[in-house]
Amino acid sequence: MQEQQYILKKPETFDLKDIFECGQCFRWNKQENGSYTGIWKENVVNIKKEGQNYVFTGICKNENFEEEIQKYFDLDRNYEQIKNELSKKDKYMKTSIQYGKGIRILNQDLWETIISFIISANNNIPRIKGIIERLSKTYGNKIEWNGEEYYTFPTPEQLKNVTIEEYRKLGLGFRDIRLYETTKMIRNGEVNLKELEENPNTIEVREKLLTLSGVGPKVADCILLFSDLKRLEVFPIDVWVRRVMNDLYIKEEDETKVNKKQIEKLAKAKFGDLAGLAQQYLFYWRREA
DNA sequence: GTCCAGGGAATCA
DNA sequence: TGATTCCATGGA
What we know:
Strand order of the largest sheet: 1-5-4-3-2
Distance between the termini: 41 Å
CATH topology of the largest domain: Endonuclease III, domain 1
């Protein structure tokens, strides 16, 4: 395949570390020269900052490389406007947005996002990345580029004959059966991903996602927010978000006793349709800073 | 050895 | 509905 290149010139909202290390994705890795290399669909791409521009180099089936990048990096959305609006909410939002000002929420493949966030349950990011890498290396397609080997995320069909024991060997732990069941449900059409992508009703899509094994409220919200379903109004609540919301607004002594519904209500009232973005700025800020 | 990680499912009131 | 407990694994 022919190598392609695209130069994104002086984007207002775009920072490699903010985008790839804010916890939304697991298949981008920092290189020694500060660039990031990653894979999505059949695309293997390296992104390097040069001055105020970003140089995308890699292999892509779509001859329109720019279009592919535009879609994945959500480049049609005006993040400056979003940040301005959220910054007005209070000083904490202003601070967290300043910290993660280069974040963009990627449009990731729905199937891959479902599996990735099932794996994320009660897990940590380095280990999640390792499991996904082993899963891809074992069952995905190999792509060679620049003297290195990369592996696509396996399709439901490619996982057809995988046993629970084989998942366990990849280090999935108790999530093995969840992956097995959910993959089966998607493959046999119990949950139709195309229908989900075409359904504008977020409540209905969420309920359908919740029928999948290993998908509870938090994972469902991550799928809605981080996949190409792109529901920016959902507010995934994990241990970090609960922590930061309690520290800033609720101030309960024991944060583990904070009611989830209370957090949801507060988030909706405060951030409205942009709750998902607010969540991401707060999460990134609280975890990194 | 102990605690923790981008939680979910089973169980019980 | 709401609260508790268990679930593999690996790093700190």
